[in-house]
Amino acid sequence: MENAGNAVRVLLIEDNPLHSKLVEKLLEESKAPDFQVTTVTTLAEGLARIRTREHDIALLDLTLPDSQDFATFLRVRAENPDLPVVIITGTDDLKLAARAVESGAQDFLVKTNLQSGPLIRALRYSIERTRVRDAEWNSPMFRLAQRQFLKAAQLMSLDDNIRQRLLFPQRTLVVSFPFRRDKYTEVETVFGYRVQHVLTMGPTKGGIRYHQDVGLGETSALAMWMTWKCALMHLPFGGAKGGVRIDPTVLTSHELQRLTRRYASEIMTMIGPDKDIPAPDLGTNERVMAWIMDTYSQQMGYAVPEVVTGKPVVLGGSPGRSEATARGLTYVVQRAAANLKIDLTKSTAIVQGFGNVGGNAVKFLAEAGLKIIGASDVSTGIYNPKGLDVNALFAYAKQHKVLKGFAGGEAMSNAELLEQKCDILVPAALQNQITAENADRINCRLLAEGANGPTTLEADEVLNKKGIASLPDILANAGGVTVSYFEWVQDTQNYMWTLDEVNSRLHKQMVDAYERTRTRSERQGVDMRTAAMIEGIERVAAAKLARGLFP
Ligand code: GLU
User: Fold this and answer.
1) Class of domain 171-315
2) DSSP code for 285
């Protein structure tokens, strides 16, 4: 087929001639871009056309003479996963259309209500989104964050304009920059990112991650989750995240410092106490925050402790910040257990990950009376159904830097450890740990997500069916950013709170967010993740509507 100039080539797969005529007519009204529509009436013809790779987008009716329902979408997807698909649906099939959107369709339109403006915009946005996502944004994590958002947006009937606005971050910065190795002549060039998802609520807030998998897609997903997390916790921040694509464990301390200072100066224009306030995340810690604070302060000419949180206490860090994520997680586990009638003193826990979140979670859960039967780090998992000697475990980790070789339990892989029977399971390492592949074998009563994005949407469904209660990441790990907020407040007011004050405020805020989420989940009949997301999205949407649109 010949492409007339820059026309958008639309493949319309629709068996009802009235509807296809209407779509063709509405698209003719477009001044720019021009649409060139090819209409077919069966799935078989549609698939044959898709095979030619001559179309920019497919408009798909799910009920066709030779294929019905969700299968229609799956077959189109399988034929060409890169082709953007917009579903056209009747009002009776809305649920199905929403499911297709959660599974990768770009959008859906209701047939009875078709108008030229929204139709043209839906096609244009869908093509743009697919192009953008296929570049730097292409990451499973970003797709997960978008799909979780679309699921919640659909259930809460979110205003379509706001849905479009929230699907991508408002500001992103990609930098490539050099740093010197200890051997003076060796210079490495690395990529760094800072993403601000929502600038509506106040300054943006979120950690900085050093990891070999960091990219724009991953950083954007994490920034999006920060938006919902801050809104759910009622903190006056929008979401942000940053990172550098590097494995920090292979760097010396001097190299890490030079890398950090150069990265800080590259993102200098983005950050600031009233603009965007970084904090630690995977691969960074309070020492890294101190270097960022120092680099920023050198530029300003005076000390600006409030530009980062998670700093050493001596520089204006808050007591309790470094353990806050695990402490907050323990508070909501205790509250959820009380609701679920789980007696924690007779319960077992498995914690995946032994960093700041996982390590402290082992400590606090043990203090709360749980028997820790599994722990892990990158080197190994350790399992002992009779209970691990937690003090011995920490002593071993301190001495050997890794858990591998610890004799107090059976060694097994991280994946195997997740599948052992326990009451409370805490994934506190990386994303994408509980998936469609292993969800069926997860054997716990309560899942508390210490990591960001450890569970996929497909796995959510399986866990819900199995009756496993869950505390989703944006709730369970929100203690970190909540005490970050306390730190920022103390810094901007030049005031220091005691550890008791910090912990009791944290407790109050965590329990309040948990109760709001639980109530919504029960009232609306949705799972806890969706309930927590809706809590957050509703607040952001209300703020956006209240501020209005400039100009
Ligand atoms: N990186 C942490 C998170 O994912 C904390 C962010 C912060 O304290 O700003 O929630």
Assistant:
1) alpha beta
2) -
pLDDT tens sequence across 60-70: 999 999 999 99
The first and second tokens of residue 139, run together, are 């990451």
Strands 381-383 and 410-412: antiparallel
Using most ligand atoms within 8 A of CB, pick from 237, 322, 481 the residue to mutate for ligand 1: 481
Q: Is 481 in the pocket of ligand 1 (CB under 6 A)?
A: yes
For a mutational test of ligand 1's pocket, the pick from 141, 227, 325, 475, i.e. the residue with the most ligand atoms closer than 8 A to its C-beta, is: 325
Task: Domain ranges for the chain, please list them.
Answer: 7-135, 171-315, 324-480+512-534
Is the separation of the CB atoms in 529 and 490 below 8 Å?
no
Please state the CATH superfamily assignment of the domain spanning residues 324-480+512-534 in this structure.
Answer: NAD(P)-binding Rossmann-like Domain (3.40.50.720)
Instruction: Give 278-318 pLDDT, tens digit per residue.
Output: 999 999 999 999 999 999 999 999 999 999 999 999 999 99
CA trace torsion 501, 272, 322, 207 (10° rounding)? 130
User: Which residue numbers in the chain have pLDDT < 70?
Assistant: 1-5
109/98 Cα distance (integer angstroms):
10
Q: CATH assignment of 7-135?
A: 3.40.50.2300
